[in-house]
């Protein structure tokens, strides 16, 4: 909607439009910077939402082990597994639900998930809740995409972009009594010096001076077309705010770039989900490692950075670990995102290696390669 008024002899235009909560863009406002920024932000939001929606929530039961890593058993098929991974939770499917949660966290400081139980205390659903709800009963997620309680990363970044782009806008013209020399750098320097002098004089009380042959015309609108440098600025500001490179969006990112993005942007949210879901959905008697309990339960999410390692990298690590083992079988399985097993708290090494205290214990060999006593 556009309203025009005549106030104090000047035409004043007031524009209003409905804000799209998904794109953070006012429909109907036409501006190259708005379009470019909104479109690129949507790509970033979609990437983050996709990564969150791909995770698998594992409901597991640990068995305490006096010496070694506590082993775990998957509780696939439990009520918690059913709701977190399979139930649509008020949407088309579970993937859409977690994608919406991630997108909402990018523009909302905190969100609340309301667990629904049946008469037997079994979890049967998990729904997005309104703000006016008892937070002692809800799963409370605080967005990692805010710089403070009132300002999102997106807000801060857009403000920075607007400031930098505004510096390049043409806001008016200085009419001179002469021809504009398009070939001479001397003319450009003289024009800059003239404008600089006008600004310095005007900094005293807002008034400046020109000669009688010079006229200043201020535009009612600023005019510009986004050039390559401005588009690069928009991309750079948005990408760096979410610890991404553009190759993350195009699928051409290196292993280092993938790990940096995942570690900086995705893992903080996954860690929060693990803790809050475990705390709110599993009773304290089942959750706590108290004396007398052999088992305790957790909700875990696979966030191992080894998922970005190539098969060759993993085989090389496995080979090195059998030559000079630093990790037990279970520790290695955990790094690969696999479950620890009973009897896995041992080191695997090939028989060509042995423990010695000094080089004198090495066996002597004949020239033909045979051991001698």
Strand content: 15-25%
In spatial order, strands of the major sheet run 6-5-12
End-to-end CA span: 99 Å
Question: What is the rounded Rg?
Answer: 32 Å
Number of DSSP helical runs: 11
Query: What's the shape?
Result: elongated
Structural class: alpha+beta
Outline the biggest β-sheet. 3 strands, antiparallel
Structure commentary:
The protein is an alpha+beta fold. Helices cover 39% and strands 18% of the residues. The chain contains 11 helices and 12 strands. It has helices at residues 32-53, 79-86, 94-105, 153-166, 185-205, 228-241, 246-250, 255-281, 284-287, 311-323, 329-335; strands at 2-7, 10-15, 19-20, 25-26, 57-63, 71-74, 110-117, 123-129, 139-142, 170-175, 215-223, 295-301. The protein has a 3-stranded antiparallel β-sheet with strand order 6-5-12. It has a 3-stranded antiparallel β-sheet with strand order 8-7-9. Strand 5 (57-63) and strand 6 (71-74) form a beta hairpin. The longest helix is centred in the last third of the chain and has 27 residues, at 255-281. It is elongated, with a radius of gyration of 32 Å. The N and C termini lie far apart (99 Å).
Provide key terms for this protein.
single chain, 373 residues, three-stranded antiparallel sheet, 18% strand, disordered N terminus
Topology:
Blueprint: E1 2-7, E2 10-15, E3 19-20, E4 25-26, H1 32-53, E5 57-63, E6 71-74, H2 79-86, H3 94-105, E7 110-117, E8 123-129, E9 139-142, H4 153-166, E10 170-175, H5 185-205, E11 215-223, H6 228-241, H7 246-250, H8 255-281, H9 284-287, E12 295-301, H10 311-323, H11 329-335
Helix pairs in contact: 1-3, 1-6, 4-6
